[in-house]
């Protein structure tokens, strides 16, 4: 009976979970990962720390899942099938407007710095973001291989997610500008598709 009661107490509705994740992202943007505390999350969300730890185990897991939540259904590749690799990559890019991309870019820059000093955060990000996204990109490329667009022995396949993340991150670091749909679409056509042996015209 006690176990059943505990399970009932720990159950959180999807709406409440989304509210908690939004609050975590707000705090991350305000104070950064290192200064974010479970106490602050509990206060912002009117939750108990016990509930937060019971649901997520700790700060790293909570933050990784909050970031993952901003990408419903993974990065959404399962919902995209335009019939061509170019169409799929363009459709993926157009799912986020310029404002959202700018916010996500700033958030990820801060988290990238935090990951270097927090092995638990790196582990959580690998589990909830990096590995699932790599798997989804592999499925997207496999569809292109099955269609005959990409040669299965093309060495650039293994670096596709590196190219995609690199273009997004380098826009801010090198050009000191936020990533935009226009920039990323041009980058896909000029860099990613040619590397994979796909005509971009």
Automatic annotation (TrEMBL):
<dbReference type="InterPro" id="IPR001647">
    <property type="entry name" value="HTH_TetR"/>
</dbReference>
<feature type="DNA-binding region" description="H-T-H motif">
    <location>
        <begin position="37"/>
        <end position="56"/>
    </location>
</feature>
<keyword id="KW-0804">Transcription</keyword>
<keyword id="KW-0805">Transcription regulation</keyword>
<protein>
    <submittedName>
        <fullName>TetR family transcriptional regulator</fullName>
    </submittedName>
</protein>
<dbReference type="Pfam" id="PF16859">
    <property type="entry name" value="TetR_C_11"/>
</dbReference>
<dbReference type="InterPro" id="IPR011075">
    <property type="entry name" value="TetR_C"/>
</dbReference>
<dbReference type="GO" id="GO:0003700">
    <property type="term" value="F:DNA-binding transcription factor activity"/>
</dbReference>
<feature type="domain" description="HTH tetR-type">
    <location>
        <begin position="14"/>
        <end position="74"/>
    </location>
</feature>
<dbReference type="InterPro" id="IPR036271">
    <property type="entry name" value="Tet_transcr_reg_TetR-rel_C_sf"/>
</dbReference>
<dbReference type="GO" id="GO:0000976">
    <property type="term" value="F:transcription cis-regulatory region binding"/>
</dbReference>
<keyword id="KW-0238">DNA-binding</keyword>
<dbReference type="Pfam" id="PF00440">
    <property type="entry name" value="TetR_N"/>
</dbReference>
<dbReference type="InterPro" id="IPR050109">
    <property type="entry name" value="HTH-type_TetR-like_transc_reg"/>
</dbReference>
<dbReference type="InterPro" id="IPR009057">
    <property type="entry name" value="Homeodomain-like_sf"/>
</dbReference>
């Amino acid at each position: 009976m006690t176990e059943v009661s505990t399970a009932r107490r720990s159950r959180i509705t999807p709406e409440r979970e989304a509210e908690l994740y939004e609050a975590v992202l707000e705090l991350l943007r305000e104070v950064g990962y290192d200064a974010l505390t479970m106490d602050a999350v509990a206060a912002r969300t009117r939750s108990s720390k016990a509930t937060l730890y019971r649901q997520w185990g700790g700060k790293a897991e909570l933050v990784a899942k909050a970031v993952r939540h901003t990408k419903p259904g993974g990065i959404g590749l399962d919902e995209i099938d335009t019939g061509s690799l170019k169409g799929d990559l363009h459709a993926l890019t157009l799912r986020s407007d310029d404002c959202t991309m700018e916010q996500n870019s700033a958030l990820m820059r801060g988290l990238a710095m935090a990951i270097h000093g927090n092995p638990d955060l790196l582990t959580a990000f690998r589990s909830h973001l990096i590995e699932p996204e790599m798997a989804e990109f592999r499925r997207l490329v496999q569809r292109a291989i099955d269609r005959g667009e990409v040669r299965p022995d093309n060495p650039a396949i293994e670096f596709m997610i590196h190219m995609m993340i690199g273009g997004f991150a380098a826009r801010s670091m090198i050009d000191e500008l936020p990533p935009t749909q226009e920039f990323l679409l041009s980058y896909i056509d000029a860099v990613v598709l040619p590397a994979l042996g796909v005509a971009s015209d």
